[in-house]
Automatic annotation (TrEMBL):
This is DUF3194 domain-containing protein. Gene3D superfamilies: MTH677-like. Belongs to the UPF0440 family. The lineage of its organism: Archaea, Methanobacteriati, Methanobacteriota, Stenosarchaea group, Halobacteria. It comes from the Archaea.
Length: 78
C-alpha cells in the first residue's frame, strides 16, 4: 500500500508533467498543483495561467485526469 506522501507526489508529478508536455516552461505564467489524499480520497486541483493555445482550462482538466490515472496505476502496481 503506497504512503499518502507517495500518492500525493505521484499525482503532483503527473499533473505537472502533463502541463509541461503542452507548454514550454517559459510560457507558463503561473502553475499551482494542489493534491490532497486523506482517508483514501484523492483531491487534485490545478490552476494554470498560460497562453490561450492550447486552452489552459482544458489542459488543467487533462492534468487532473493524468494525476488520477497515475495514482490508479500506483495502486494497481502495489
Amino acid at each position: 500500500m503506497p504512503t499518502d506522501e507517495a500518492v500525493a507526489e505521484t499525482a503532483s508529478d503527473a499533473a505537472e508533467g502533463l502541463v509541461l508536455s503542452r507548454y514550454k516552461q517559459s510560457a507558463i505564467r503561473d502553475l499551482d498543483v494542489t493534491v490532497r489524499f486523506e482517508d483514501g480520497v484523492l483531491d487534485v486541483d490545478v490552476y494554470l495561467d498560460a497562453p490561450a493555445d492550447p486552452d489552459p482550462e482544458m489542459v488543467a482538466e487533462e492534468a487532473v485526469l493524468a494525476a488520477e490515472s497515475a495514482v490508479d496505476d500506483l495502486f494497481e502496481n502495489e
